[in-house]
Structure formats: structure tokens, C-alpha cells
Design brief:
About 35% of the residues lie in helices and about 30% in strands. By secondary structure, the chain is an alpha/beta fold. The strands form 3 sheets. The protein has a 6-stranded mixed beta sheet, with helices on both faces.
Length: about 325
């Protein structure tokens, strides 16, 4: 890894935000390096948008610190914000402008130098696949193209950090694939924070994932670490002559049993329990024909549901 790719672009420590007596975000921290893409997740009301508004300088935190490429966002807001590109959930588009006019306006607002402005606009249009529609009115474009215009305004000043709030909402599968490709491309040169409710999107695009729940960080790790999250707490159980799932669930220490195929089950363990040995013993005793007993990798959906529903179920 080069020194450039190891550069820390976003460092947020102890972010909290209160609205009166309500705490929307509580002691959230994150760190992102150049070339990394972070999937920022959570149920509705978890504090994602509030956190992103703080990271972009649109909302002051009640407490905590934020630095962008080493620049303190609160002490030097203009310098720090110049390094950020932001696509809010509802892109701030002017439907009566052409694509070219709007992206040029965005470049001016981002204070791109006049001498290099035309080149920066042309580059943003090309990267977002907008060159062929540059002279069309934004209001005449499809939802997918309008979303591309929103991303173009976020990257026209060549920021070090790009923050995207629900960039593929309302798009069809082909449009989603194109936006994912663009996010991959952006991640080659800068850092990207991606908020989305489409969990497979995070697994296919992101390097890291952070899950918020009730305003606090419930999970943060790499995608590889995510898949091992249930390590020691979930196994794949393969039985040639499987009994009813209820018989497996009756084994001491088993919390949940889910079918994973005709003869395969995902078995979750209760807290502080490991019924693996008892499962093997019971399978032999009952002639279930045990052929597999191995740790199961977790999907993002498994982890998300486990973390965000556990509290409500207790």
C-alpha cells in the first residue's frame, strides 16, 4: 500500500447530536482511508442522515470532532468542505437548467478555478455518462439520469471524500448496476461513504460496513470480518436424514434453526452456549446421518437483523 492510499481522509470521533431531549446520534466514531468505500447502514431513524449532515458540515454536532484530510471541519470549515462532495437523498437539481449549465453552476459554487472549470465539468459529465445529454433540460431526464447529474455535481471539484445518501433509490436494475460501477470507480481515487437500504449493494461495492442502531454504532468491520461475525455462534448442519426442525431446536444451547437447503440447516447458538458437541452426539444417537457441521459465514442481512432486532425481542 502506498502512502497516498493509506492517507486518512475522514476522521470523526465521539459524534453526538441532540435535538432537545432526544439524542439522535450518540458517540459515533469512524475513520476512512483514501481508496476505501464505507457502507453506512441502519434502520429508519437510526441516525444515518444526521451523521452524514454532520460529516458534511451541514449540521453542527452537540459534541465530537471531525477532520477531513487532516483539516478540522469546525475550525476551518471552508477548507474542509472543499474536499467533500455530497449527494443528499433528494438531489438539489434545477430542472429548468440543462445538465451542462447545472454542473457548471456546481463547479462555480465549489470555487473551481476559471482556467480549469471547463475541463472539470467535462470530466464530471464523462465519468457520470452524461456527455450525450449535456444540452438536455434536467427536468426532461429519467430518474436514473437525474441521479447521475446529482453525482456529477458532487464530484465536479474532484473531492477527496464523496458522501452519497441513497444514490440508487428509485432506480431500475440496469441503472443501479451503472451507479454501482461509478461508485467503484470513485473509490479508486477517493473515499466514499455510501448510505443505502439495499444490503446486497453494500456487500458488492463496499470494503467496510458500519451499522447504526438507536443513534449508536452497533457494528463496524470490514466485509471479510462481517462474514465471520457469527463465528462461534452459528453453524451449518448437514443431515442425510433430517428430523423436523423443532427436534434440532430442542437441543440445549440452540437458539434458532433455519432451513438452508433440503438437508442443510443454519443453526444459531444461544448466548454463551456452544451446542456443537451435543448436536453431533444427538445426530449419531438418532441416526440423522450427520455429514456436515461447520461454522457458517454470515450475510450482511444476518448481521443487520441480528443487531437491529435483538433489542426489540428482549
Amino acid at each position: 500500500m502506498t502512502a497516498q492510499t493509506a492517507e486518512i481522509t475522514v476522521s470523526a470521533q465521539g459524534l453526538s447530536r441532540k435535538f432537545g431531549a432526544h439524542t439522535a446520534v450518540d458517540n459515533v466514531s469512524l475513520e476512512l482511508k483514501r481508496g476505501e468505500i464505507l457502507g453506512f447502514l441502519g434502520p429508519n431513524g437510526a441516525g444515518k442522515t444526521t451523521t452524514m449532515q454532520m460529516l458534511t458540515g451541514n449540521l453542527a454536532p452537540t459534541s465530537g470532532t471531525i477532520s477531513i484530510c487532516g483539516v478540522d471541519l469546525f475550525e476551518h470549515p471552508t477548507l474542509a468542505k472543499a474536499r467533500i462532495g455530497y449527494l443528499p437523498e433528494h438531489p438539489p437539481l434545477y430542472r429548468e437548467l440543462t445538465v451542462l449549465e447545472y454542473v457548471d453552476l456546481a463547479a462555480r459554487l465549489h470555487r473551481v478555478a476559471k482556467a480549469g472549470r471547463a475541463a472539470a465539468v467535462a470530466e464530471a459529465l464523462a465519468r457520470c455518462g452524461l456527455a450525450d445529454v449535456a444540452q438536455k433540460l434536467i427536468g426532461a431526464l429519467s430518474k436514473g439520469y437525474q441521479q447521475r447529474v446529482g453525482i456529477a455535481q458532487a464530484i465536479v471539484h474532484r473531492p477527496d471524500v464523496v458522501i452519497l445518501d441513497e444514490p440508487t433509490v428509485g432506480l431500475d436494475p440496469n441503472q443501479i448496476r451503472e451507479i454501482r460501477g461509478l461508485i467503484h470507480e470513485l473509490g479508486a481515487n477517493c473515499s466514499v461513504i455510501l448510505s443505502t437500504h439495499i444490503l446486497p449493494e453494500v456487500e458488492s461495492v463496499c470494503d467496510h460496513v458500519q451499522i447504526l442502531h438507536h443513534g449508536s454504532t452497533a457494528f463496524t468491520d470490514t466485509i471479510a470480518g462481517l462474514k465471520q461475525f457469527h463465528g462461534g455462534r452459528m453453524v451449518l448442519l448437514g443431515l442425510k436424514r433430517p428430523p423436523p426442525a423443532a427436534d434440532i431446536a430442542a437441543v440445549a444451547g440452540v437458539a434458532r434453526v433455519e432451513p438452508a437447503g433440503d438437508t442443510l440447516f443454519r443453526v444459531s447458538f444461544a448466548d454463551n452456549a456452544d451446542p456443537s458437541e451435543e448436536l453431533a452426539r444427538r445426530a449419531a444417537e438418532k441416526s440423522w446421518g450427520l455429514y456436515r457441521l461447520a461454522p457458517a459465514q454470515s450475510s450482511l442481512e444476518d448481521v443487520f437483523v441480528h443487531l437491529t432486532q435483538k433489542e426489540e425481542q428482549t
